[in-house]
Amino acid sequence: MKDYIQYLQDVLGLQNVMLSPGEAGRTGDEVKTRFFSAEGPFTAHEFQHYELVFLNILTQAKESFFNKDVRDLFDKMKAAMKLKNIQVLELDCTVDDRSQLPSELAKICESKVVVVFSSFPKDIGELIFKGPGKWIETYSPAYLLEDAAAKKVVWNDLQKVMKELGL
What's the rounded Cα separation, in Å, for the pair 60 and 11? Predict the structure, then answer.
């Protein structure tokens, strides 16, 4: 719950956060993974299929896809991939246990490929089957703003994704 409130304050700029009685009573143990869109907490109204999902694992608020500097770089990365006519979902997420991330995402959507951005990626650069699709972890756009030398690694990973999607 603390991460959720911190996200609302730091990323969205909300100062007075009001929670429903159900949310306020949660201990934090019940929800270990939270997904966020540009509008705030992401809740799927119906199960959907996306060809590509970008998940950005947050460890700090400044890493959000929706911060201006990060967004500018991420938009350039997507433009370089030439992602026309495919369904893409972009989400920030907080996660306590990365091993649960595929099953948590599978509750809201399915995807052919999931790109997981992180400042500390595991299994970097490997397309791995997890759930119904393939996953690849690489450095986040926020990390690239601090370490430009990692851009080549990320570009190589994104090219693997493009090949998998036939782009």
Answer: 10
Stated as kind and residue range, the H or E segment containing 138 is strand 133-139
pLDDT by residue for the chain (167 residues), tens digit each?
A: 566 666 666 766 555 544 444 444 445 455 578 898 888 888 877 788 999 999 999 887 788 888 899 999 999 999 999 988 889 999 999 888 888 888 888 888 889 999 999 988 887 878 888 877 899 999 999 999 999 999 999 999 999 999 999 98
DSSP assignment string, 14-29: --S----HHHHT--SS
Q: What's the token pair of residue 66?
A: 């929706």
Torsion of CA 142, 113, 46, 117, to 10 degrees: -10
Mapping DSSP to helix (H, G, I), strand (E, B) and coil, where does residue 141 land? helix
Contact 105, 53 (CB under 8 A): yes
DSSP string, 63-90: G-TTSHHHHHHHHHHHHHHT--SS-EEE
**β-pair type (109-118, 48-57):** parallel
pTM for the model stands at 0.78
CA–CA distance, 84 with 90 (Å, rounded to integer) = 15
H/E segment holding residue 42: none
